[in-house]
């Protein structure tokens, strides 16, 4: 198996010795690469580990593979971080999901806040959620992760704070804070919930609500970063003092 074998996400049916058809997205990926029967692939289902596989059939619209050996390979960050953020405008959320996946985020919750420019509701919100989940899958294929971060449904900040059970350490990105994002967290064993606003940040009332629920205000320094840059910089800072998990 070549180290350069393409990585394909296959959400169902993986098991040693199984022969299966790739999803339409996976088949299209293989066809674009002009692979042929006998060529190698790496398959993963998003729940951990990966399988070697060999292409057995290349049709006009379908690709079949034989699954070979399972490898318990993990490339996750040592710290669990959940990103909860006001959705940035335009296509910036697409870029943020891709890069946050590469940095090792465990989940992303898109929020509607007072200052959110992009308003998403009902069917449109569901389509965006599916779109962002597909971006996370593609990012995992590219970067080598075998666990796909979950993109949660679009929801309001008020609803999310009401449901949050405080089962981790909550950090609030705030221009009013002075404490660095990673300060004093080297030995923090709990999952981290990183709350970040859209363009313009969270409103004072929203920040107060988050702090009432136990979120600690934190700073990224004296410069004002774009909404998507701030979230990614904080995510990187929270992972910087811990080694990545590699098996």
Question: Which features characterize this protein?
Answer:
247 residues, alpha/beta, Ribosomal Protein L25, Chain P, Alpha/beta knot, 2 domains, 5-stranded mixed beta sheet, 6 helices, 12 strands, 30% helix, 23% strand
Ranges where pLDDT stays below 50 over 5 or more residues in a row are 242-247
How many DSSP H or I helices? 6
In total, the number of domains comes to 2
| Rg measurement, Å | 20 Å
SSE order, one letter for each helix or strand: EEHEEEEHEHEEHEEHEH
Mean pLDDT: 90
Number of strands: 12
Helix/sheet category: alpha/beta
User: What is the molecular shape?
Assistant: elongated
**Can you tell me the CATH superfamily of the largest domain?**
SPOUT methyltransferase, trefoil knot domain
Strand content range:
15-25%
Distance between the termini: 17 Å
CATH class of the largest domain: Alpha Beta
Q: If you consult CATH, what is the topology of the largest domain?
A: Alpha/beta knot
Largest sheet: 7 strands, parallel
The share of residues in helices is 25-40%
The CATH architecture of the largest domain is 3-Layer(aba) Sandwich
Structure description:
- It is a single chain.
- This protein is an alpha/beta fold and 247 residues long.
- The protein folds into 2 domains: 65 residues, Ribosomal Protein L25, Chain P (Beta Barrel), CATH 2.40.240.20; 160 residues, 3-Layer(aba) Sandwich (Alpha/beta knot).
- The protein is 30% helix and 23% strand.
- Strands 6, 7, 8, 9, 10, 11 and 12 form a 7-stranded parallel β-sheet that branches. A 5-stranded mixed β-sheet has the order 1-3-4-5-2.
- The C terminus is likely disordered.
């Amino acid at each position: 198996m070549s180290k350069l074998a393409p990585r394909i996400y296959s959400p169902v049916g993986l098991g040693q010795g199984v022969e299966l058809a790739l999803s339409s997205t996976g088949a299209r990926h293989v066809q674009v690469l002009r692979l042929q029967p006998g060529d190698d692939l790496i398959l993963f289902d998003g729940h951990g580990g990966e399988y070697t596989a060999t292409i057995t059939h290349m049709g006009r619209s379908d690709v079949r593979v034989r699954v070979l050996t399972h490898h318990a390979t993990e490339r996750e960050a040592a710290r669990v971080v959940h990103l909860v953020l006001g959705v940035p405008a335009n296509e910036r959320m697409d870029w943020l999901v891709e890069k946050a996946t590469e940095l090792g985020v465990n989940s992303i919750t898109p929020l509607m806040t007072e200052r959110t420019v992009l308003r998403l509701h009902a069917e449109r919100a569901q389509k965006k959620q599916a779109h962002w989940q597909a971006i996370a899958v593609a990012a995992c294929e590219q970067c080598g992760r075998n666990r796909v971060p979950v993109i949660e449904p679009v929801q309001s900040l008020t609803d999310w704070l009401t449901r949050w059970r405080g089962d981790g350490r909550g950090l609030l990105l705030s221009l009013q804070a002075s404490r660095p994002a990673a300060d004093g967290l080297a030995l923090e064993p709990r999952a981290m919930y990183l709350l970040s606003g859209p363009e313009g940040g969270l409103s004072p009332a929203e920040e107060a609500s988050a702090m009432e629920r136990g979120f600690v205000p934190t700073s990224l320094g004296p410069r004002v970063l774009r909404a998507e840059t701030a979230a990614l910089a904080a995510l990187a800072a929270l992972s910087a003092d811990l080694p990545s998990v590699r098996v």
